[in-house]
Structures
1.
Amino acid sequence: MSQYSSKSTGVEIAAALKEEIRGKNVLITGVSPSSLGEEVVRALAPYANLIIAASRNRVRRVYFTRCPLLIPLSEIFRTQTTVDAIISQTPSANIKVVVLDISSTASIRAAAKEITEPIHVLINNAAVPMAVELSQTEDGFETQFGSNHLGHFLLTSLLLPNLKQAAAGGDVVPRVVNISSVGHYSGTIRFDDPYFALRPTEYHKMVGYAQSKLANVLFSLEFAKRYGKQGLASFSLHPGGIVGTPMGASVSTQELIQFGLANPDGSYVNPDEWKTIPVGASTYIVAAFEPSILEQNGSYLADAALAPASPDGKDQVLAEKLWALSDKLLGIKF
């Protein structure tokens, strides 16, 4: 991994790992214009056997606790348009679009039925913008925890046969890559009240976000423990502070100032630590294809390299407890 740096782009690292990528089927959630998901697909397009872009292409709906009405959000994700643009750049690319709303268990189950191919790499990338007000998904889960964690937990459980199918030959270790954030360091799993239903006044969008991102790290940790001996691997990662993504747009300049990330004039503190979308995609490619990290199954990455997770993010007891809670909330047995 010495050839990678914090300034490497996803395209550069994909070119370096092209022999690892060739022949592989990759599924990534959350592919929309000007997103990290789009850039990852662009980087992999010249080499992957198949890329499945699983993303919503319609208005997302959530329930706000202060209003019982179903409120459609205005942002529409144009997945097919995004994919068509990538294919125009790389005509040899084999990309399949599957409609998937990660905030809806019904949509997740329907999408999983469409996916019959073996999956060598599953990249759980989709995330909802941080909701200022406490809100629920259509299944009654707190929006960020329900989408960013529970949605991907359910999807991964449904695609476990596809991952095992890819591992059947014994010469490939399929991977589940969970996109977390450095924000997981401030996260706490509210085991008694994950939806803020008992204590709604404790909700803040950053608190909900941090809980969901810690859950992503713990999911990889426990997945590696449970399925490592069956030839599967999982990694979580922080792509960096990214300028220009839909997720980044959900954090205001005032909030960046409040959390010490921006100066009073709105300029970034430590501007060199912020990444462009092409650079942000690099850690995805390392987590998905770099051979040397398999010895550290379950680990966390940042800046295109292995990195220390938070103390809670390395806590195997918490990871096991979260897995049991996720099973219970979804009514499944992963």
Note: Residues 58-77 have pLDDT under 50 and may be disordered.
2.
Amino acid sequence: MMLRLALLLALLTGAPALACEVPPGLAGLRVELLNLTNAERAAQGVGTLLPDPRLDEAAQVQACRMADRERLSHRGSWFAGLGRRLRRVDYPYAMAVENIGEGQTSAPEIIQGWMDSPDHRLNMLARDAREAGFGVARAANGRLHWSMLAAAPRF
């Protein structure tokens, strides 16, 4: 019943449905991801990121889309890029970056993977970013799909 309601609401509002499997304790996992990210930023002398529920929502939508397709992609439904996804959650941004991953089994593992990748590391340590959001979804094949958004609001 809830799944049907979510799909109907998505069709009526044009919002993406979040009918995907999320790992247990997603809220705690998001806190862990933010804490690990901020520890890496602090080690490099970069400011702390604050959580933002709109960024969590946009990141979760992307993680669900990737899990549904069982592949990594920076594009969402109808090839929506990051800017469109942020506008859908009413996040007016001055800057935004995104990291994605697939297959890592824990928060420390995905954070380490992103820090070990030069391009992902730049996103993790983006000096202009002020807020962050995270999404995690499990694909039918059992693999986890991860999404991180770091952004600065436009005032």
Note: Strands lie at 50-51, 93-102, 131-138, 144-153.
3.
Amino acid sequence: MASLRAMEPLVIGRVIGEVLESFNPSVKMTVTYNCNKLVCNGHEFFPSAVVAKPRVEVQGGDLRSFFTLVMTDPDVPGPSDPYLREHVHWIVTDIPGTTDATFGREVVAYESPKPNIGIHRFVFVLFKQKKRQAVMPPVSRDCFSTRGFAEENELDLPVAAVYFNAQRETAARRR
């Protein structure tokens, strides 16, 4: 029942369906920006608050299990017509269980969110790898598919996911 409750915001936010298949969360992942801003499903962040890459902690598995983290924006160029879906912002592989993303291998460098039109969702997905150093980076950041990437790299269903919303900041809001 707890896993169903954890999935609900991902279903309501259409992350399940548009980005991911339904899955059973089995690992705890925490994503924190600027040391103290925890990412919770559906919360909004200003783009100026997410310029530097976040700390992503994997609380599950063990040092012998490895994980891949994918951060993607499924709302490119805008949520009403996301014809470039998805844009990949960050990929880190070979993250040992019970550590954080800094222990992994960054295969796509972090690109800070800069939404232009509407409210965009930025999704963090964690996959368990079958073995180490088996994940290949995508050819392009645009027209990325989290599902396709997982298939190509023989990653199973996700073990954790969380997303936040962001929209373009007006000059007045930046002050």
Note: The mean pLDDT is 92.
